[in-house]
Design brief:
33 helices; alpha/beta; six-stranded parallel beta sheet; seven-stranded parallel beta sheet
Length: 927
Amino acid sequence: MTAEAPTDAETAVRELLSGRGFDYDPETVAIDDAEAFARLAPPVREWWVEEFGAFVPENGGLFTPPQKGAVPRIDDGTNTLVCAPTGSGKTQASFCAIIDDLFERARTGDGLGNSVHCLYISPLKSLANDIHRNLAEPLEGITKKLEARGEPVEIRHAIRHGDTSDSDRQRMLETTPHILNTTPETVAILLNSPKFKKKLETVEYVIVDEIHSLAENKRGTHLAVSLERLEAMCETSPTRIGCSATVEPLETVGEFLVGGRYEDGEWTPRDYDIVDARFVREFDIELACPTDDLINTPREVVTDRFYDRLTELVDDHTNTLVFTNTRSGAERVLHNLRERADFDESDSGCHHGSLSKGRRKEIEEGLKTGDLDVVTTSTSLELGIDMPYIDLVVQVGSPKSVAALLQRVGRAGHQLGETVKGRVVALDRDELVECAVMLKKAEEGFVDRVFVPENADDVATQQVYGMAINGPRPEAEIREILRSAYPYRAYDDDDLERLFRYLTADYEGMEDRNVYAKVWRDRNDPPGGEYHYDDFEPGTPLVGKRGRMARVIYMTNIGTIPDSFTCDVFTRSGDEWVGQLDEEYLDTLEGGDVFVLGGSRYEYRYRRGSKVYVDPTSARPTVPSWFSERLPLSYDLGREILAFQRRLLDRLDSGGPSAVRRWLREFPMDENTVRAVTRMFDAQVRYGGARSVSTDRRLAVEVELDHDQYQRNYYVHANYGRRFNDGLSRLLAYRCAQEANTNVTVAVADHGFTLSMPMNRKVDLESLLADVDPTAVRADLRAALDGTDLLKRYFRINATRALMILKRYKGHEKSASQQQVSSEMLLGFAEEKEEFAVLEETYREILEDKLNVEAVETFVAGVRAGDIDVHLQEVDSPTPRAFGLATLMASDVVLAEDESAVLQEFHDRVMAEIDDDADGVTVDTGG
């Protein structure tokens, strides 16, 4: 709504401020948003001034930067993506104009009725709960002001998600909230609720909070289609508002938010505006390292210095939030802080997803009230609740992307105007380089891209099934709704035919395996025919549900978050139980891989259902214990690291180590880090030459003969992140195995990967890479996945999402391990069928979302075109930049004792050779 603006809006605003004790001198305090603020109705303006009038000097007006951009646009009914850091008022920006509009209509019109007008959708229940509480304050405050004027109004708001009781759900049906806070999964359920879906026809506003965290996964894909289904049933097109932290590309997220339509054969997004306030806050971020020599400094010294400094930082601040990269790391840091300093349960805590809901809630309350001096966490507090007293964030190790760094550090200094203060501590040589580049790019305004999954058949299955249950519906209408969602804009007729073939069980033997048709597909009969529907013209192709249990099956089985389970590990000889592994960890294991469990080393052999069989071994581990829990390095950041290494080599070549140190002092890092990074690259070049360092124009590969293990190891310095490296390593391992006629073992990290084969086998990796046809990459990777545990697990996940396997049916619940057994029986059937939708989606998800196949294709094309040089070099011992690849045992907090010994051994070998060859070493920058 637009209230009548005064002739001089700023004068009116200053009078309003003055009347509430805020007398600001026009000469020193500007108010540049008076016209926008004057749009609000008087009671809303009064409440806003009382709450936020004190912040006018910092904001330059009544609104923060994102609010200045968003409030007028939302007031005009414009779809808007608001992109701004934590604590900048994004959520208030979204709700302000909406609340103003609802109050005005409740006060002057026919009221708001008994239906929903605004949907607030959050990825987290805790965030929805927090917003629900925060929304109560303005609604109650403005309601009281209207009551004082003799204008009683009521705007109801409620929260509904999986934890909402049946009685509360029934109450919402009888007395419906005008503002409903919910989650993506609940929206999909409400769209198929026979009674409540009618309540959604009046929705005029949809707010999607933390949209960046949804766009990159299938929860967001599901929500994008739900919003199109909502659009089709609403009386008027709802205004969509997306709230996002720092994200890139803005246009992709904007189009994901608003969806679009096909016009003249081309998909065109709906109109929307972007409010880009990503960099409105001041950041004080620095990288630190406890020593300038992580090899020779004793492990206990590094540990002591780290905890001494962490304790100092906690003591110097009001509330400190410490992020680690694993849950075990968060527990260990808290334990050591309590052991070494004067902290206990009353002033410190740990928060992560494995803790009970009650314990997490206790920690969250302590953060809200400021009662906890320090809290350690992994990823669970990146999003969600307000923590107004946090004034320092410490990140231990690399958060793996600039976006994650800004999201985590942004939890400090929660009020606009406060400097966001963060300290990053690196305890690993590879992470020193990673974090150095990350902090510099953050300072320059760089943000990693979000990649949206596209054409997911499993999500499409759920949504088409939901539309059929609400039908019958014209097939053309279903196609239009599905393709209106950004993730399905390229979903063509062939894709839809493949999907309908699965949904109608149009495969011989499918129903024999208890997988039944979910929909029927037919043309509308003429009047008087057995299957005639008056709402549609005769001959119209229609889609409807099959089975009396369809709605119940849909309601109890939809969603995209997969179930997971642990697998029991047994020795093959003696069938002795030795422990348990999370099934996600098994994705990283191939036959012959060595891992540590319970302090002992085991060689992975095979898996049967939920049982894993191993052999005891003394061989060095090839897959670290934290592998499945850590986030992968962002591909975009990996490319920036490679460009950084090229520039560093140029300086090392032209001015030596002193020139590198001078350059690195321009980065936000301490002197220990400057010297440690310089020392590492100087040793690398002196030992292996500049061409042993990968850049954005070169891939360095070193070959080592490990006589102890009788292996030939190829250390591939690909700094593109674990997803890319998982894809490229599988491709090369597949090709190497064919060429050398031998098994190839793969070990993958963020900064590269290792290929190992028997010493009596050899391949020319340089020629092999150059010979790969980019158009054959997908076929080769698909062949390499055949029979792997990774394929089996993802098929189970997608078969469950596609309702091929029902988690819940007739009161019975099927556990994840039972689902796995069922899926393995179905996988063989699916592999025999041509373009079976669930199997095709499994390959698509693994190749595109997990193995970054598009980036692998681009890289291979670059090698073939000569844009990327492949440099192969034989070494007696791994170079300094390969130490991490040679061990793959980095701990999440401090270096493990056995790794320190191995690194020291490698380092001593390198330094001895450098000293022996110290005369006349020149730096060759190569490509």
